[in-house]
Amino acid sequence: MAKNGKKIGVFDSGLGGLYIARAVRNALPQYDYVYLGDTLNVPYGGRSMEAIYNLSRAAIQYLFEEHECDLVIIGCNTASVTALRKLQQEFLPENYPDRRILGVIVPTLESATELGATQIGLIATEYTVRSKIYDEEIVKITPRAQIYGQPTPLLVPLIENNGEKYMDEVLGDYLEPLIEQGLDSLILGCTHYISIKDKVRELTKHRVRVLSQDEIIPPKLKDYLMRHPEIETRLTKDGTFQCYATDVNPSYIRNVEKLMGPDMPISQATYDFS
Question: Which of 20, 24, 28, 76 is catalytic?
Answer without folding.
Answer: 76
